[in-house]
Structures are given as structure tokens and as C-alpha cells.
Write a structure and sequence with these properties.
There is one protein chain. The protein is α+β, with helices and mostly antiparallel strands. It folds into two domains: 29 residues, no CATH class; 120 residues, no CATH class. Helices cover 30% and strands 27% of the residues. A five-stranded antiparallel β-sheet has the order 1-2-3-4-5. A hairpin with a 5-residue loop joins strand 1 and strand 2. It is elongated and about 65 Å long.
Length: 179
């Protein structure tokens, strides 16, 4: 196995000693693993991917993190416009399609700003908004291995946008016009 010499600044010696102790004496394997992660991270960034953190859950919410590049966004309204479902579709470095879905109340529907809706003073029930729970929100992260799998799990217009981006001639998903 070839040897490599690493020159360490005096101020960094305690860090290397601590790393060696934590690694059970095998500092070489620890440095190799750190370099592997560093190279992977830099290659991912240079390919246009970034670290994405999303909130998931319905009653109990937690976070998930992945590498991705945003391809397209979409939004639809459901249940007589009382719910808003937002979609963000990401391409991952492994070629999967990650779809972040946010299903939330459409507060514009409830605000009284719609035609034919009574004025707020006529509908006020005296309830304090702070008593409303957050369990009306549902956040999901769905992962699909192909464009075909994605097709029936997002709105048709969003699917067409993602399909056009992935099948288009440009790497960044932007349609270049010669006008």
C-alpha cells in the first residue's frame, strides 16, 4: 500500500490526535472516509445539486434531508378549494425523483375574501386562532425511481413539465429560445 505524508499545522495536532483516538487508532481509514465524503459532496454541488431539508408528517412532524435539484413546482386545490396541495419535484444524484407534497388548509378560502362569502364580522364565532392545531397540515416525501412511476402521482400539468425538463436537450432544464 502506498504511503502519503500529510503535513499538519501545530494548531491542528490536537484535532488529529482526538480523531485517531475516536477511530480506535486507525487515523488513515478516518481520513480516507472524510476525503470520500468531501469529494462526493463537492461533485454533487458542482452538478447543480444542493442539500434539501423537508418537514414530513401529519400529527407528529420531523425532518428529512437529501441531495436534490429542483425541477418543477405545482399547486392544486381540493375539497371545494378548502385544501391546497403543493408539489416540489427534485431530481436526486442517483436519478430518482423526490416529490415533496404539502397538503394544507387553503386559508384564502377561509378568509372571507371570496365572492358570496359573508363579511368577517358576520361569521366570527369568537374562537381564538391560537387554539387551532397544526394537525390540519400533512407533509410527505415520496420517491419514485422513474418518470413513469411519477406520472399518476402528481397533477398532469406538473408531470408534463418534469417530463419536458428531463427529456429536453438542456442539462439545467431550461428551454433555450432562439427568438
Amino acid at each position: 500500500m502506498p504511503n502519503r505524508t500529510i503535513y499538519v499545522a501545530d494548531s491542528d495536532v490536537p484535532l488529529f490526535e482526538k480523531a485517531q483516538k475516536l477511530a480506535g487508532g486507525n487515523l488513515s481509514a478516518t481520513i480516507t472516509e472524510a476525503l470520500r465524503r468531501f469529494v462526493e459532496s463537492q461533485e454533487t454541488k458542482s452538478s447543480g445539486f444542493e442539500e434539501i431539508t423537508v418537514e414530513v408528517g401529519k400529527v407528529a412532524h420531523f425532518h428529512k434531508r437529501f441531495q436534490g435539484r429542483l425541477l418543477a413546482k405545482g399547486r392544486v386545490f381540493e375539497l371545494n378549494d378548502t385544501r391546497k396541495v403543493s408539489y416540489n419535484v427534485y431530481l436526486t444524484p442517483k436519478g430518482n425523483l423526490a416529490v415533496y407534497v404539502r397538503n394544507t388548509p387553503n386559508w384564502n378560502y377561509w378568509s372571507g375574501k371570496r365572492p358570496g362569502r359573508p363579511h368577517r364580522s358576520q361569521q366570527w364565532s369568537g374562537e381564538d386562532w391560537s387554539r387551532w392545531t397544526n394537525d390540519e397540515n400533512e407533509y410527505r416525501l415520496e420517491v419514485y425511481s422513474s418518470l413513469e412511476e411519477l406520472e399518476y402521482n402528481v397533477p398532469p400539468e406538473l408531470y408534463e413539465a418534469v417530463s419536458q425538463i428531463l427529456r429536453g436537450p438542456s442539462d439545467d432544464g431550461v428551454e433555450v429560445l432562439d427568438i
